Amino acid sequence: MAIGILLLAIFVVAAIVMFTRALPAVITLPLMGIALVCGAALIDGNISGQDILKGVISDGALKLHEAMIVSFFGGALSFVMQRSGVAESAVKQGAELVGANPLPVGVFSLLLVALLFTSLGGLGAVIMVSMIVLPMLATVGLSPAAGAGIILFGMSLGGVLNPTNWVIYKNLLGVPFEEIKAYALVVFAVVMLAGCAMIVFELFQSRLVRWELRFVATLAAFLGVLALLCWVLVVSAGGERGGEPAAWLVWTRRAGLALFALVLALMAYDGFGKIQRWRQQEVRIRGWAYLIPVVPLLAILLYDVPILAAFGIGFVYAIFATLRPGSLALAVRALIEGGASVMPAVVLMFGIGILVQAVIGPTGWKDAHGGATWPVLAAIEPVLRQCVPSTPVWYVIGFGLAAPLALYRGPLNVWGLGYGVTAILQSSGVIPPAAIMAMMLSVGQVQGICDPTNTANVWVANHQGVDVQKLMLRTLPFVWVAVFLGLAIAAVRFY
């Protein structure tokens, strides 16, 4: 017990180091993993130098290799969308369609930002989208804080549907991919409702809307369509039942393929028309270019295409959908510069992998030592079992109340200690792996939307002239309610 407390103290020290920003997470996480395994090695002689160097450091650094490769192609796809002008054009075209009614403009902006950030990433993308969306929101009367909240909600919603994050949960927890996809759509719907609630609240606070029949009918219709769409995608993401997909799903897939074939035919026809005067081509954004962020997502959700293949298809589609002189050079730059843009996340994944490997132990270690438990786990488990919620009710209450621990680089921050905590929770055997995934995905919305230490939050708050701490307080109540709702659904679904 004393050894377990000592090892958990290393987590506490690491949390303090990251909270005070004495060391960045990319350095703290691998150091913490090495400290854990070295501390256990000093006490338990069964841990060899080979276990530390190869089993923890080398194998741990590559543990999230699939997510790293997906991040690389995601960065390339984001680069194409930004440099080809598709993302900017999508926002401008959408602004012309929704008119000047503040409610439709606010909800549309939320959906549009969410759609774009399923593929976009990085501070550059945040600045580009914000510089177009925020003035549009201001012109219809939304306050600076409301505009900032819409951007942050939209970015986090896009992250929920970003398959890169799904791969991490699959690699770390071994949760079936179908369960991750289906629950991610549930979280998307719940957080979308929270975002709409924030917009309505801000509009009423600014006295821009009243409870009129037209307003209520519009809002109810939108929420109904959202619920129906999410239900269809949740069912389709659940895979085949009894070996055969439902008839309606088969026809939906066939219709989708037919539409995609039609789009490809139109793209080919347009491409052949450009060949005759290729160098004199005027750069124009065609309608099918706006499907770029949707193509890989629907390929994964509706057709069960592997994530890496889906992003490859999406990248090729993006190049041909934006075909123009210099497209080949754009593709090469996207692979190089777009890949470089995600390197901070990839380096962080190195540290996360080392930390998780230090907690759960090298592959095959248990078998090589006659079924003995990895010493780090053996020391931590007795302490952990006394504080991990073991019933569905306490799962919801405990992690719901603890959700703010995702703020300020806290222990539930997914890009900090969060994945280390995930490994410890999994090792306890008290909570089902799918429920751990659901908890991190739900609680992660607090970090994604509200955390004042996020670079995007700081930039958006400064641009809007709003204190970043006050922006956290404006958004946290809505996100917190969504977290409790998401945890409740997870408790019913996975316990």
Name the quaternary structure: single chain
The topology string of helices and strands comes to HHHHHHHHHHHHHHHHHHHHHHH
Number of helices: 23
Quickly count the domains.
Answer: 2
Number of strands: 0
Give the helix proportion (percent range). over 70%
Beta-strand residue fraction:
under 5%
Q: Mind explaining what this structure looks like?
A:
- It is a single chain.
- With 495 residues, this protein is mainly α.
- The chain has two domains: 2-46 and 373-494, no CATH class; 65-344, no CATH class.
- It contains 23 helices and no strands.
- Helix 6 (102-116) runs antiparallel to helix 7, helix 8 packs antiparallel against helix 10 (177-205) and helix 20 (418-428) runs antiparallel to helix 21 (433-450).
- The two termini are 29 Å apart.
- The model has no long low-confidence stretch (mean pLDDT 80).
In short:
By secondary structure, this protein is mainly alpha-helical. The chain contains 23 helices and no strands. The longest helix has 29 residues, at 177-205.
Main traits of this protein?
495 residues; mainly alpha; 2 domains; 23 helices
Blueprint of the fold:
Layout: H1 2-19, H2 25-43, H3 49-61, H4 65-83, H5 86-98, H6 102-116, H7 123-139, H8 144-160, H9 163-173, H10 177-205, H11 213-237, H12 247-275, H13 294-303, H14 307-321, H15 327-341, H16 343-360, H17 365-368, H18 375-384, H19 392-401, H20 418-428, H21 433-450, H22 455-464, H23 468-494
